[in-house]
Hints:
It is a single chain. This protein is of the alpha/beta class and 450 residues long. The chain has 19 helices and 16 strands. It folds into four domains: 129 residues, Response regulator (Rossmann fold); 166 residues, 3-Layer(aba) Sandwich (Rossmann fold); 71 residues, Helicase, Ruva Protein, domain 3; 45 residues, Homeodomain-like (Arc Repressor Mutant, subunit A). Strands 2-1-3-4-5 form a five-stranded parallel β-sheet, sandwiched between helices. Strand 1, helix 1 and strand 2 form a beta-alpha-beta unit. The protein is elongated.
Amino acid sequence: MKKPRILLIDDDDSLRRVIEFTLVEAGYRVSPASGGEEGLALFGKESFDAVITDITMPGTGGMDVLASIRQQDPSLPVVMITAYGTIESAVQAMKQGAFDYITKPFNRDELTLTLAKALKLRRLEKENVALRAEVSDRYRFDAVVGSSVKLREVLELAGRVAASDATVLITGERGTGKELLAKGIHFSSSRSNGPFVAVNCAAIPETLIESELFGHVKGAFTGATKDKEGKFEQADGGTILLDEIGDLRIDLQAKILRALQERSVDRVGGAGSIPIDVRVIASTNRDIELLIREGKFREDLYDRINVIGLRMPPLRERKDDIPLLTASFLKKFNKDIAVTINEEAMHELLAYGWPGNVRELESVMERASVLKRGSVITPAELPDKLKRGKTGVESIILNLPEEGISLEELEKNLIIKALEKHKGNQTHAAEYLGITRPTLIYRMEKYGLK
């Protein structure tokens, strides 16, 4: 492991030698300088992980060194050495960007501990920059796998939307990548340096959802032992994703609407409003217009969040992307070996209906990667449900009437028949129909089936 390099500046020769010896013994590489001018000259030629400098030196003093370094590398930690009589100057130095100060006389532990903290901060800042760059790159629109017309249309519109602060509603079935699209919008916007906070409105218990969204003050309810900021406050300066907003209680919908209109939130039990600067993206797999007709969703909130509507197409509508997605997932799950899929197995993938969409395909490829016997995926590594998915439809004989037919009635009757066949077992009926159980329940609710 590479040893951190420290620039040490002090005009006191004996103290400088003691500090240098201490740091070298602690495992650091040290470049000593006897004054500010010499130190800045070294700084201009070499790179360092931290700087330790005395404040009071003839000529170019420690404050001058700090100002010059901050101008050239604002994130480089600078530790100031000061005597008791110049502590006020050290405090002023920290206000101008110094990491910390140590006072003479100091012991070895104080010096090494302060320096270790400074280097840790430097490392964390570098990691944070690298991670943000990686995340930003991962969620760029051109990094989304797929070239089908429907997907590209969505991404093109999302790219135009990202430049604004407009509220967006993303619709689509589960597993289509709604959250991925929301992240793409955030990381392609001017808010990309701010937080991205995702809230699954369907996953949080009803008794906690208001506190999670808006926060609470100490004593607001049993168990509220301290103040807590909500997700809206956490997203200040960035973006909040209200995932599955169609499952949100209607009384909380009113509070969401108020937060959007007033650009402020009220903590549970709080006395005043807290201003927020947040972009809102909402997503749902439910039919919001149907929920409005049923009195389960506020029409004014729908109008507010649906400024820009984006629909993520299900995988069955973009089957041209399956080979690209498959190759991407195989690369993800097989980092040490190049794995491909043979023609027969690919035919199975293309013939399947994919009720779980891209998420289901990813799961299938992970399973196949675990079970593979070599570097080629064959039908033997694919689950049986893919083979079942392509049978049955061809055996159904439909007598289509001349006057036309209602697709919704046809779907409703298929659901009824599937439930009857499996004696009301929703899980088995969903498997039989090639859809997920939550999708079946949603469609049962849609058609009023108990």
